[in-house]
Inverse folding.
């Protein structure tokens, strides 16, 4: 079995009333202050060169690629705690296509 996040194993007593295969929801309290950041959906993330990137719109028809950290997986994507602001307009559909176009343009300029 593969999991995207950290796995946990819990021991349950036989007389707990739980049945094999029964789905459960649990919470684990962790020390420290809660994290704040932006939830970035998987469709916005492009992986290249061992890093994760998103495209941010910086003009009407211009987008820049910005590195992000995927240290905090969350329901629906990743919680990004630095490098993005609430005012940033992220590309959430077609990010991979923008990356392909960026690479094509770079190849043309190099030749």
């Amino acid at each position: 079995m593969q999991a995207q996040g950290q796995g946990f194993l819990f021991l349950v007593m036989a007389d707990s009333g739980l049945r094999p295969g029964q789905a459960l929801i649990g919470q684990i309290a962790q020390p420290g202050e809660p994290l704040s950041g932006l939830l970035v959906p998987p469709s916005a993330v492009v992986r290249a060169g061992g890093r994760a990137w998103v495209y941010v719109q910086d003009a009407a028809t211009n987008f820049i690629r910005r590195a992000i950290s995927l240290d905090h997986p969350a329901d629906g994507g990743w919680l990004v705690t630095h490098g993005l602001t609430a005012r940033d307009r992220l590309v959430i559909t077609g990010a991979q296509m923008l990356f392909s176009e960026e690479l094509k343009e770079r190849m043309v300029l190099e030749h």
Observations:
- Residues 95-110 form the longest helix (16 residues).
